[in-house]
Design goal:
The protein is 24% helix and 38% strand. The protein is of the alpha+beta class.
């Protein structure tokens, strides 16, 4: 297993099936990890500003606008939150 990579919460969305999608991305926005949780599971899970994600669980961001948006949001989160801070 490879070393974990610090990733920042860059997106949180809800859908009509009561599922919450959390996206954590690397600071450069090039790679991301997506996690889907039910609203019930989310109430029992701490959502923090950053997480350590194993490198092999990260996927490449497919397009430049998304990469830039993720990088900007990761920078904003890193500048305003401690990694372990609940958000």
């Amino acid at each position: 297993m490879s070393d974990p990579v610090r990733c920042w919460l860059v997106e949180r969305s809800y859908d009509d099936r009561d599922v919450v999608t959390l996206v954590y991305a690397t600071p450069d926005g090039a790679r991301y990890h997506q996690r889907e949780l039910s609203a019930t599971a989310l109430s029992r899970t701490a959502v923090t500003a950053a997480r350590e994600i194993p490198a092999e669980e990260l996927r490449a961001v497919g397009d430049e606008p998304t990469r830039e948006r993720y990088a900007a949001e990761a920078e904003r989160m890193a500048g305003s939150h401690d990694p372990e801070e609940p958000v």
